Amino acid sequence: IDPTLDLVAEIDRLRREKNAIILAHYYQDGEIQDLADFVGDSLDLSRKAAATDADMIVFCGVRFMGEVAKILSPGKIVVIPDAEAGCSLEESCRPEPFAAFRAKHPDHIAVTYINCSADIKALSDVIVTSSNAEVIVNALPKDKPILFAPDRHLGGYIARKTGREMTLWPGSCLIHEQFSEKELVKLKVRHPNALVAAHPECPEAVVAHADYVGSTKGILDYVVKTDAAEFIIATEPHIIHQMTKAAPHKTFIPAPFADGACASCADCPFMARNTLEKIYLAMANAAPALTVPEELRVRALKPLERMLEMSA
Ligand code: 13P
């Protein structure tokens, strides 16, 4: 790439030329969030991808999110800036062991977190995100036990909230897993008026200290509407970009890992693979483009559509 290129202007030009929509997750760099047409949590991004009339969807997040967009909008070109932007939850749950897990519990309903591959979605009864998991689990037939994969912390949180019997897949997010209860308590002592907002992918001991637990969108809405000056944020810290824009006079403190002092250690390394250069190239070259074999897409679509219906 020509180093003198104004990437933001070029991305804008390509957006018009290609009739593209740029979708970004809250965990993206601030500069990517700022040029996106829409910034959202996993559920709102899925809804947007399903509803758009753009010809090209540029999905700035991680690969499974782009894959969901392709499953919901198969006629569109869906590009992602970096094909290697994976997810530790997706990695933790492979089709063969998951199929065996299901076969071992044949009378269970398989409720699966959206952070998984199309193969796992195709083996599931209903997909959930952290913003609709409680509503969906509450709406499932009461006489049936539930299998929940791949995030054991989100699954445990939903089981505690709903009182439902749930067998959990042993996966976790490499970032949320590392927030430290001990360091969080130390931070709370130093900021006694700060409210704690946590993502349900955090371990139970961290969630136990939270004043609010919810999806990225839920956390953002909570800190904006709640009358307090200081918040400790236990999720990937790039969401603080939107918080500062929406509530510039409030203070947002990232929750600490076990080493206490590291400012950017909670940055998701997969989300961080996306850059303006890669977005520009993805749009210019229409690559990397996501493809999902039609037979798999149709099977993965079913539990995703069930999710959208149940969280309407
Ligand atoms: P939400 O944006 O749905 O809260 O999900 C966060 C996440 O885990 C993204 O991978």
The gist of it:
By secondary structure, this protein is α/β, with parallel strands linked by helices. Helices cover 42% and strands 15% of the residues.
Shape: globular
Strand residues, percent: 15-25%
Number of strands: 12
The residue fraction in helices comes out at 40-55%
Low-pLDDT parts are none
Q: What strand order characterises the main sheet?
A: 2-1-3-4
Helix-strand category: alpha/beta
Q: From the alpha carbons, calculate the radius of gyration and give it in angstroms.
A: 19 Å
Q: What is the CATH first-level class name of the largest domain?
A: Alpha Beta
CATH superfamily of the largest domain: NadA-like
Number of helices: 15
The description of the largest β-sheet is:
4 strands, parallel
CATH level 3 topology of the largest domain = Rossmann fold
Bound chemical compounds: 1,3-dihydroxyacetonephosphate
Tell me the CATH architecture of the largest domain: 3-Layer(aba) Sandwich
Order of helices and strands: HEHEHEHEHHEHEHEHEHEHEHEHEHH
Average pLDDT for all residues: 97
Query: How many structural domains?
Result: 3
N-to-C span? 43 Å
